TrEMBL record:
It comes from the Eukaryota. It holds the Pfam family LRR_1. Coiled coil: none annotated. It is found in: Membrane. Residues 234-319 form the Disease resistance R13L4/SHOC-2-like LRR domain. The chain crosses the membrane at residues 12-31. Its main location: membrane. SUPFAM superfamilies: L domain-like (SSF52058). Gene3D superfamilies: Ribonuclease Inhibitor. This is Leucine-rich repeat-containing N-terminal plant-type domain-containing protein.
Amino acid sequence: MAVPMLQHSATFSWLISLTSFFIISTAFLSFKSNSATALSPSNDADRDALLALKERVVEDPYGALNSWNESLHFCNWEGVSCSQRHVNRVVALDLGGQQLNQLHGTIPADIGQTLPNLLGLYLGCNNFTGPMPLSFPNASGLVQLDLSGNSFSGTLPLNLGSLKGVLDISLGHNPFEPQDLRFLTSLNNCSSLKALDVGNSNLRGGSPSSISNLSSTLQILIAGQNQISGAIPSGIGNLINLSFLALQGNSIEGEIPTSIAKLTMLQTLWLSGNRISGSIPSSIGNMTQLGQLYLDSNYLNGSLPRSLGNCQNLQLLILSQNFLSGVIPKEIARLPSISISFNLDHNSFTGPLPVDLQLEDVNYDNNNANSSTRNFISEECLVAAMSIGIACSLESPHDRMNMKNVVAELHAIREKIISVKISRTHHIRS
C-alpha cells in the first residue's frame, strides 16, 4: 500500500497554520492589565531587569528598543506595560509581531525572578537563541507566554505546569532537542489553560494519552509537525471546549475515536499527513460547529458518512490522498456553507459529483468517477501563498516579511479565491 502524498492540501494547511498563529497572537495583543500583585515596594528593579534583557539583544535592525533609554520612564518604553495600581511594576512585555520581529539575542535566565509581576510575555517571531529560561514560574501570575517562532534550543521546560493560572502557552516553531510527551503531562495542573501551541517543536513518542488529560478549558491545541505516534486517545472527548485541534504531520496511527464527537465546539479539525486508518466515524456529524475538516494524506477507507450533512457550517472538506470509496452523499452536497474548497482527489470514489454542489474550488481528480470537474483554485493564488511562506522563512531576519504585510497578503489571496466564479459541467458516461 503506497503512502499517500501531501499535495494540493499543503497550501491550505499552511494557510490554516498562519491563521492559528494569528489567533494566539491576537489573544495576547488584546490583553491589557490594570492591576498586578506587588511583590516589593516601588523601585527601579524592573527597569534594571529590562536593561539586562536589552544588553542580551545583539541585533535590533528595526530599532525596537531605541526608546529604552534614560530620556523616557521605562514604563513608556516600546512594548512595556506597567501596572496602574502598583507603581513601576512591569506587567506585560510585548516585542513580537509586525516590525518588532527581528530581535537577535538571548533571554536572561532569571527573567522570571527579576520581573516577578509579569502577566504577559510576548517575544514571538524573533530570533532569540539558547535554552528557554527555567525561571518563568517565579512570575507566578503569568497568564500569557508566547516564545514561538524563535531559535530556542534545549528542551521544553517541565516546570511551566506550576503556573496554575496560565491561559496561553505558545512555544511552537523552535528547534528544541527531541523529547517525549512529558511536557504535555506537566501541564495537566494548568486548570485555566485555553491555548497551547507546541507545533513543530520536536515532540516525539507514542501513546499521546496526556493530551486527553489537559484542562477541559482548552480551546486551541496545536501539536502538528512533530513526531508523535500512537493512536488518538479516546479521552480526547474530555476537551469539550476545543475549537481548534491541529495534529497534522505526525505519525499518528489507528482509527479516529468515536469519542471525538464530544467536541461539539470544534470548528477546525486538522489531522492531515498521519497514518490514520479505518473509516470516518459517523459520530462526526455531531460536531455541528465544524467549519474546516482536514483528513487528507492518511489511510482512511470506506464511504463518507451521511452524517457529515449535519455539519451545516462546513466550508472546507479536504479528504484527498486516502482510500475512500463509494458515492458522494447528497447530504454533503446540500450543505449550504461548502463554498470554498472540496478536495477528494486520489481516492476511489465512484459516480459523478452531485449536481447540488455549489463550489468555488473542487478537486475530484484521480477517482473512479466520470467527471470532468477539476481544481479551479487559481495558480496565481497558489504561487502567491507559497511565496509568502518562503518570505516568512528566509534565513536572514532582515529579509523576512513582517507580520503586517503577511496578513494583508493573505487577505488579498482569500478575496481572490472567494471571487472566483465557477461554471461547472458534468460529462457522465454510461
